[in-house]
Amino acid sequence: MIVNVRFVASIKEKTGCPELIVEVDKGMSVRHLIDFIKDEYPKLSGREDFVVSVNKRQVSEDLIMRDGDELSIMPPAHYF
């Protein structure tokens, strides 16, 4: 499955890129995708205070990702 990951505000600055296209396993949760991203971008590894949205809706990290979803990761003060 393919998921588009968008980095917003200071998260984008820490990763050095605005977005990332990731191939994920079927059944992967938001939490597991965030863990993968933290492994890829060590500057994010110490942060626990992300706001995440999938397809522009704030979601639980237990949500299972689907093919074509857009995951946005932003600092807590940056809501839609």
Key structural traits:
28% strand; Ubiquitin-like (UB roll); globular; 80 residues; 5-stranded mixed sheet
How do you describe this structure in short?
With 80 residues, the protein is an alpha+beta fold.
Please explain how this structure is put together.
- This protein has 80 residues and is an alpha+beta fold.
- The chain has one domain (2-74): Roll (Ubiquitin-like (UB roll)), CATH 3.10.20.30.
- Helices cover 21% and strands 28% of the residues.
- It has a 5-stranded mixed sheet with strand order 2-1-5-3-4.
- Strand 3 (51-54) and strand 4 (57-58) form a beta hairpin.
- The N and C termini lie far apart (26 Å).
Q: So, the CATH homologous superfamily? A: Beta-grasp domain
Looking at the overall shape, the CATH architecture is: Roll
Silhouette = globular
Number of domains: 1
Q: How many helical elements?
A: 2
Order of helices and strands: EHEHEEE
**Approximately how much helix is present in the residues?**
10-25%
Question: Pairing-aware structural class of the strands and helices?
Answer: alpha+beta
